[in-house]
Specification:
Length: 279
Amino acid sequence: MSADGDVVALWDVGGTVWARQRPAGAARWAAPVRIGQGPGEAVAPELSVEASGGAIATWSNRRNSSAPQGRRYEVTVAARSPDGSWGQSEILADDSVNQPYATAGIGPRGAVVTWQSAAGGSGTGAWAARRGSGGEWGEPERIATISEMAFGASAIAVAGDGGAATYIGGGRPPALRQQPGGPWTTLAVSRRAPSAPVRMTTDRAGGMVVARATSDRPPRIVVERPGGPIAAEVGRSGAPADVAVGADGPVAVAWVGHEARATDRSTRVIVAVSEGGGR
């Protein structure tokens, strides 16, 4: 959602990726727009929208190939301008034989996409590509090593100054940060959870906030500011669906799971909110 209240939705049907928007104050959604279509199935579309209404969508297009593994994934992106028009989709990489878990983040000074690739040799690893304010994508950069058997969900957030942080489920290191114009460096996180969904966002000062599940059984939902104090546990059971930071500093996390005090153990949508800038 943009700062003005425009809402953008993204989904896939077979090999086609669609987007739809509802302008602020409108009673109805606009007609769906096809933003990408490939030769194979579109997998795991992700969307990031910034305050002006600009957006980046990324997904993986799975296609058959003559490779020994029999398939390849194309990491594909499409950009939306603040006026609501989508540009032509582009392929950033096409050599992974495993699900790349591509994820996108956008801010006022550009966008970043990260993904994982099991291409063999130097092609195996976690990768990042940056799109500047001029709209051109830079060359992909290998930012972390990764085991071909340890892929996991990824997340990314882009700050207002252009800096970025990413969490890579199977990466070594699992979390990295890039200051504006600088290299990717290790970002300390409290505990690894290689297979858990992760959500990231930024606060008004550009600090990163991460919500994720631990590898405990049942999993613990934790929120942390990488490089800061130890993570705070906000709940158990489930995995975070989203995280947001309010203008005055409070953090809200939503997830689907079992409420600790419930007696019927039915699945619920649970929201935890910190007080002020604390946890």
